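Problem 3 from the worked examples.
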Amino acid sequence: MSLVIPVAHDPTCPWCWIGLSQVRRLRQEFGVEFDWLGYELFPEDLEWQDYAPAEPLPPNKPPTPSRFELALAAEGIKLPAAKRPYRMRIHHALQSIEYMKDQQAPVQAWVEAVYEAYWMRGEAVGEIEVLRRLAEQGGFPHDGMEEALESRQFSNRIVKFDDDAYAAGVYNVPTFFIGQRRYAEQPFVVLRRAVAGVLGVRPLATSTGI
């Protein structure tokens, strides 16, 4: 039986788009599986945050990459250019993953379908009708999905930010639970070493030697 790694996530988080890429690579290299745990960044009882605009750079100062831009570069991926819904609640999408678990459907494939719909095509995956269409098009079970989501059948499995998530030790998404440690917003090389350590194997050699 392969190692199953829980990962706390929210499909609307850009760091989780990086996390999805990392999951794919870890599955390919080590044959491990992942249990996707819904941690809702902006539940209905949490008000949207307003962010102050960034201070303009001095005209003679060259720009420097942000931590997120460095993470994208390290992973070798780009953030898709699709225009995505602004301030969308994601509760139903997180519920749909729990629904697929109960249906013994291919959960990894469903998670990828939800992420790709949102990040690559800008679809409103927080809406039940969009999720139903994705399930129909992808051949996933969906006969009882709409009723289950509307009745919030799986809400008790979803952890809300901030207080509940913090109490569970999750302050950022994605957070990977590997062995007895948590790894939040970490580069792939760190996750790779952690998985190899738990499995007691040597990771594959890379061109950088790490």
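Problem 4, a separate protein:
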Amino acid sequence: MALYENFVLAEQIDSILSTKLDVNRFMTIDTSLTQEAGQKKKVHKYSGTGAVEDLAKGAKNSSFVDAAFTEVEYEVARTQGTAKYFDDDEMTDPTYVEAKLKYLAEGMVNNWTSKAIAEFGKTDKTYTMKDYTLAEFAGAISQYTKEYESTEGLFFVINIELVPTIQSLLGEHLKYTEDYIRTGAVGAILGVPIYSSKAVPKDTMYLATNEAVTAFIKKNTFVEQDRDVETKENIIVATRYAVIALTNAKKCIKCAPASVIGA
């Protein structure tokens, strides 16, 4: 007999996942997924045309506001982690199993974050960076705000190897606060936080909001347990089903040297 009820473990893993800032920082969460692993989910990516106009009395609009979409198929992935422990382990250290569940849940977060960054790479919006100066960061942000005006929710995520270069070039312009340190940010430039990840391609950074990518996931974590009554070894298997998709390419800009953008 397992030492823990499945729903208790599921709730604990879900709690860990919901408090991991990486999930909500880099993508929008949609818990409406119904498909199983290997099945296809069709994602519509919309773009708008036309504009509103100021009109004189009795005048009509010269054009219509319209929207078009492209349909992209994604395969549902089963993200799963397995943890093992013996009865003696739990008796010796009551937090031992909890620690394993924490690392298991963080592994799921890292998996989804890597997939989100891969989706950022599918954007067709680009900005050429030559030497990562303050002016170039300002130029990238300006390109975004020309369309959306506000920088609310914006972040840079950079290749981890760029961190020393950026810290050296930006110097005092790179601002630090306790909040940035707590959330793992390198710092902030012109009010936009900078995060780093090994999943970002070499010499590349993305300027985005979490609206660019959507994580379609099943609402609940599926937890199963097994136990060897002779050895007293317990196995916990936690599974989530998800599709990570670029749903709003306009909310993401790929920033890199011309040689990388053109590759």
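Solution to problem 4. Helices lie at 6-19, 21-26, 87-92, 96-120, 134-148, 163-170, 178-182, 258-261. Residues 96-120 form the longest helix (25 residues).
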